[in-house]
Amino acid sequence: MYPRPGEDGIAVAVYSADMIAARLRDQENMTIKEARIFVTDKIEQSDFGVGTPRLIWAATSEDFGETVASA
After folding, report:
1. Per residue in 1-57, pLDDT tens?
2. H-helix or E-strand containing 54?
3. Rounded-to-integer distance, Cα 6 and Cα 69, Å
4. What is the reported pTM?
5. How many other CB atoms sit within 10 Å of the CB of residue 17?
């Protein structure tokens, strides 16, 4: 991750947003859509100052405009 202003030389944690959403789905009985919205709106947008952890989402072929054939 690229450092934000004032973070040069500071270690910053990076978490999997997909895993957080999956845990919310499983433990809080949310749909995956609800969980992803929660992660985006309530966690990813938070700024706790220098060293704020970052979230990373896994990219899928659909993210690049490719359609997935259904079986």
Report:
1. 777 788 888 888 899 999 999 999 999 999 999 999 999 999 988 888 888 889 999
2. strand 54-56
3. 46
4. 0.74
5. 19
**Token pair recorded at residue 32:** 């995956």
CA–CA distance, 14 with 55 (Å, rounded to integer) = 6
Distance CA 13, CA 18 (A): 15
Structure tokens given for 25: 């789905």
Q: How far apart are alpha carbons 30 and 10 in whole angstroms? A: 34
DSSP 12-41: --EEEHHHHHHHHHHHH---HHHHHHHIII
Rounded CA separation 55/21 (Å): 11
